[in-house]
Amino acid sequence: MAAFTLAEASRLANDGEIHLAILLVSHALREPHHASNTELLKKRASLYQRLELYQYALTDLTRAAMLDQCDAACYIARSQCYRSLGMDQRTLIEYATMLKLDPTRANTYYSRGLVRDGVRCCLYTLEQCCPHQPPRPTRSFALCVCDARNE
């Protein structure tokens, strides 16, 4: 049933019926055996994101992340929501969590660098606001742009 719901919701969204797709997924999530389905939660969150309803998307993504704390896709989507809401410090926290789960994601290092550059944040500021320790940079990435700013 969940696979059918996901496929049907995708078809509806592709046809421009995003609100109807949200209703379909919401109805499926009301069923006790689907209430903890992270794929349905992530699907509804992506539909909310398409409508720029980022707070609703964050609610679903947070619930999905609580159910499966190792699902990097939840943190990627949450970082996109926080970024869209202009919450750059929260975006950096999500990137730190993603990199803790999978330190090989080159695109996450790149995206984190763009956010840091935009908010003029440094590694030390991130450590102060984030309960997670940021991962160490790999040899192939120059991650900290702070050295150029410490004049």
Provide the fold topology.
Blueprint: H1 2-14, H2 18-30, H3 38-50, H4 54-67, H5 72-84, H6 88-101, H7 106-119, H8 123-129, H9 146-149
Q: How would you briefly describe this protein structure?
A:
The chain is mostly helical and 151 residues long.
Characteristics:
Serine Threonine Protein Phosphatase 5, Tetratricopeptide repeat, 70% helix, 151 residues, 2 domains, mainly alpha
Walkthrough of the structure:
With 151 residues, this protein is an all-alpha fold. It folds into 2 domains: 1-77, Serine Threonine Protein Phosphatase 5, Tetratricopeptide repeat, CATH 1.25.40.10; 86-151. It is built from 9 helices and no strands. It has helices at 2-14, 18-30, 38-50, 54-67, 72-84, 88-101, 106-119, 123-129, 146-149.
SSE run: HHHHHHHHH
**How many beta-strand runs?**
0
Number of helices: 9
Strand content: under 5%
Q: How would you classify the helix and strand content by structural class? A: mainly alpha
CATH topology of the largest domain: Serine Threonine Protein Phosphatase 5, Tetratricopeptide repeat
Q: Rg, please?
A: 17 Å
Overall average residue pLDDT = 80
Number of domains as seen in the coordinates: 2
Distance between the termini: 59 Å
